[in-house]
Amino acid sequence: MNRLASKIAVITGGAVGLGRATALRMAEEGAAVAILDVRDEEGAALATELTQRGLSAAYWRCNVASESEVRATLDAVAERFGKLDVLVNNAGVAGVSKPTHEVTEAEWDWVQSINVKGVFFCTKHAIPHLKAAGGGSIINLSSIYGLVGAPDVPPYHASKGAVRLMTKTDALLYASDRIRVNSIHPGFIWTPMVEAHLASQGDVEEGRKAVGDLHPLGHMGVPDDIAWGAVYLASDEAGFVTGSELVIDGGYTAR
To answer: What angle do CA 62, 66, 70 make, to 5 degrees?
Structure first.
């Protein structure tokens, strides 16, 4: 219950899915969590749920594709809680699933603005706060598709490959500041994003089974599978871990 005691954690895309699970588990482990999202109703409800349980949490509306919003929000979080120790760059979108030659510039740019520039902006403006705190942990949500390819959603796959290499670069840049930077690479996890993707392909339950069968363990993961990985990387237990890829994929990339 105290793996993250006294830590202040910012979680982007924290209102639903992987972000929500991460906020819950980090708060339960003693962190004060700042939930950032554009889903105001869900984000505020989660913050209220946590505070009613006696945990420390607050919600901020923040579009991670806007540098000015990111800067102002992270400054507000640090002012509210006194410091910043952990940044979870979780906010992301899937984008269109069609061949590269059919993707429009606007469709490409939308995914990169959130999945890549969002990580850049949040990292950029978290670094001064992490330095002021004497160090910390940045956790970037990449994907199995930051490691391997597939014949679909080209903008998404490109974005997650970028996040993987951004992680390694920043791990090297900020190691001397005691700021650890790692990436998590989930397989298919049952979240609203994955459900919406399967719905766009046809029957959701058939799709869920088919996608689950792609994993050697025989099923999709659940948000807590990723949340506990983030708790580990945020904790002092991972004090010698930086520039690493934590693959949580039911064996998908082991083939």
So the answer is: 50
Helices (H) and strands (E) in the chain, counts: 9, 7
Tens of pLDDT, residue by residue over 163-194, are: 999 999 999 999 999 999 999 999 999 888 78
**The pair of three-digit structure tokens given for residue 187, joined into one six-digit string:** 């397989």
pLDDT tens readout for residues 138-152: 999 999 999 999 999
pLDDT, one tens digit per residue, over 103-119 is: 999 999 999 999 999 99
Stretch (H or E) spanning 94: none
For the whole model, what pTM was predicted?
0.95
Catalytic residue positions, numbered: 156
Looking at the DSSP bridge assignments, the partners of residue 221 are 189
Report pLDDT digits (tens) over 206-247: 888 888 999 999 999 999 999 999 999 999 999 999 999 999
And the tokens for 37?
A: 């999202």
Q: Which residues does 113 contact at the CB level (< 8 Å), separation at least 6?
A: 65
All residues at 6 or more sequence positions from 245 whose CB lies less than 8 Å from its CB, including other chains: 142, 147, 164, 167, 182, 183, 184, 185
Q: Which residues contact 37 (CB under 8 A, 6 or more apart)?
A: 12, 13, 14, 15, 16, 19, 43, 59, 61, 62, 91
The answer to whether the CB of 140 falls within 8 A of the CB of 116 is: no
Amino acid at 164: R
